[in-house]
């Protein structure tokens, strides 16, 4: 019935009669001649209704925005001055010869010409998605998943579905629970990831698994988290970290090449230690040229406690960021950056402006110059490579605070001073610690199934804090695209890790008995990775939020204004499930 | 590291040294020479360890079933008498030259040489899936989904994800509920299908949508249902029923052709009325040649109330199945079939054996002959085409009982008498009634969003019982592969259907307000279909249950013996969710 999509009618159709379906994007009346822009998912085409065909013109006269219509007409070249080379349909127009209104439209509750509230956009999502920018993002996303699937399938990966109704995980507090009707008083949990199932599939010999799969996390929603999100999840057998990194790097490179015509090249690798030291982040944005430069060794003996204290403390850190052109900062700007660093615990932000790099200390400007000898300032300028017009900003505190505060400041300065270079800067971060210590307790930095690098269970137990894991994160432009690891395939090692994490034998058996069992029956070495699909598509489309690359996202309070979910349950249903809601004193 | 999969090593590798990873499928010791069958997902290859290499032989001596190993060796032709042409690797063997045990295995809790209980198989699913028949099914399934995706994507369908955390549906009693932590006392529901979301996507202009998607139903599990199952779900805009049927029939034909080298041909179409009348089922198995033949008109005046009663009742039915060769049935067999028909409400099963079709009533044998004139028996024999050696089995009762009982009996007789013809017999069933009446109330036979055929809202309201819907089911070998319909895109029609279903305005607004809203803004005509992927793969692989084509299914009581889900929840978590479990008096 339809000749083609509206957006595909180009000059190759000139002279032909076409039939199209679509929506009225815009209608103009120019002295009795009516023009409409007819829209479908592939684009917009211009239609003209001429007084020579009064019956059709009469119908065209009734058209309003977003009416759904069927149109037939003859394709002809546009008059010279009206050609638009930027549109596929920009060289032609259609002289409408038949027009049928399929469905009328009320005035839309969303005004596409202005910003609409998130709530309103989500409530009328089906209208919001009509906006070309939105439908194009969903189409782009569909092409991404298709390309990913093809790449992985050609490499022997099998798409295998894992359960959504499953058992609560160690990070149980964030599990969505599902009451069971058959087993009253008991609950399923929605998976935060298919981690254990994909490991079991490797133990069953499936060799290479992948899945583009929904995962769930019931957490306090920060700006850009969603209760359900989508992972590109994969796992391989008999491959080490390098093997998995080669496959997944190849996949992302291929994707950027096919979808964006971008050549990413080989991804550099950086250790977690270097990333934290140089960029104050385990997901450094390498487009940003600013670096944290350690200067504690220069400041151990200065008569300025703010510096000498941390410089002499094994757990302290003194580092500096040189901002090219930053000497132009006003006192007010510096105050604002100081406040910003304060969010991350920094108690102040010492600074030195380089007004003239040929004049030694006389060319410098800073409230703290009096504490620093000529030798020291010379060394500081040399080490940071500071030139006329630059500013040095100092962090001096515990290593954690300095790293975090300067890491955040680095990002902000990079944006404010428009320092970002290059469009796409991917890298691998490797050599993570196995554990992180919080208040004297050890936590798995990745997850408890991650293998340590080159350690026996005994060696790991002897010094867990120093142990490195065989984990790897792929980072792009400061966003963690994906992370993975070599998994433990040895029962003794898995037990050792549980014990280091304070999971006693009974708890381990209760929660992970099936995994420990499975490790007894010829479990193979295996490793994998999971990408966040939403974030990947967000980056690739330049969207501002993962919500803009999902068809029906939730609000930041995990609700759906479109369907009004969640909602109170039917009392009979709660009775069937043997649960009751509990009113809290407010 | 690996040269290839074990199952791919064929005579083209002869003379080469290969490195393989895999599991010991079997180990035999033949006079000091050790043979192992090494297995991976692609198949099995034979390895020989020779006393000439004593170090390797010593390691080989320690091998037991399911050890995970790395092996290197030289590929050579098998001795003449040992060639197995049925296996890809059957012409070669590998002389093992290096062997490393990667992981040992305890004796398996499953004995693959005998039937294991479902519970045991699911508890050790990772071992059950190592069986080649099981891993091959999962691989087959992955190829099916890949082929389906490619077919649909080439036809312009976009893979768009719809939410898993959503609002309760009209069939709410079967919804799995998910308590919300952010909105205490309220619940999400897991979707029984993405029906409304895919309709909204059509209203947003996405034009063609598909998704291979998990759906959920918390129902009493019959033999072959699962709490979570997978649909191939699709929806199109501006296409009618024929359009959707052409696309989906083409997809299934292509799939059978590619995967099984089977040419399905054009699918015949049958009305729901014909299917029920001739086969006693809305999903007739056309491999079975038996049919229900109506004979009420012949039996209106017989002096046998069992026949004449239903024959004269407008809601009654008298029908007969002719079973070729059925005259050999013993009295006991007939009693068993009578009992079987009784399950479906039939109070008896009258029969006539045709011992000699050339002798008129003298050639017939039956306890009811005395009630039937010569004319009548002649007409019965003629209409059914009964021949010497056949039996006629009668159903006489309400139409519902006769149709259901003879429909079930037909299937059983077809199997017992081995009457099934042909491997694959697909068809479309069309022209369903819009509503079915149960105890005076009307229910939607498909769902409340299905469009009636060629009726205005007023005409539909005037006579809903007679209305046909624009719905279609694809049936293969007696199994409903998929079903779909043209949807309502007109607000007045949607309101009319809600009102016929007894959903008042307030309830409609509360449950489906967003749909009714959406229909006001230029909603396009749309239609779609959903296939049950599990059943499709089950049929194509010849598996006995959908559980055998899922990686990690639940038991028939909706539990997972592997992970012990569902399980009691952490009390703190329940408190956070503001719900409590309720103990029922037992």
UniProtKB/TrEMBL annotation, chains A, B:
It is an enzyme of class 6 (ligase). It catalyses: tRNA(Asx) + L-aspartate + ATP = L-aspartyl-tRNA(Asx) + AMP + diphosphate; tRNA(Asp) + L-aspartate + ATP = L-aspartyl-tRNA(Asp) + AMP + diphosphate. The lineage of its organism: Bacteria, Pseudomonadati, Pseudomonadota, Gammaproteobacteria, Alteromonadales. The keyword Ligase applies. GO terms for molecular function: aspartate-tRNA ligase activity; aspartate-tRNA(Asn) ligase activity; ATP binding; nucleic acid binding. Belongs to the class-II aminoacyl-tRNA synthetase family. Type 1 subfamily. InterPro entries: Aa-tRNA-synt_II, aa-tRNA-synth_II, aa-tRNA-synth_II/BPL/LPL, Asp-tRNA-ligase_1, Asp-tRNA-ligase_1_N, Asp/Asn-tRNA-synth_IIb, AspRS_core, GAD-like_sf. The keyword Aminoacyl-tRNA synthetase applies. L-aspartate binds at residues 171, 217, 446, 487. Residues 195-198 are annotated as: Aspartate. One of its GO terms (biological process) is aspartyl-tRNA aminoacylation. Homodimer. This is Aspartate--tRNA(Asp/Asn) ligase.
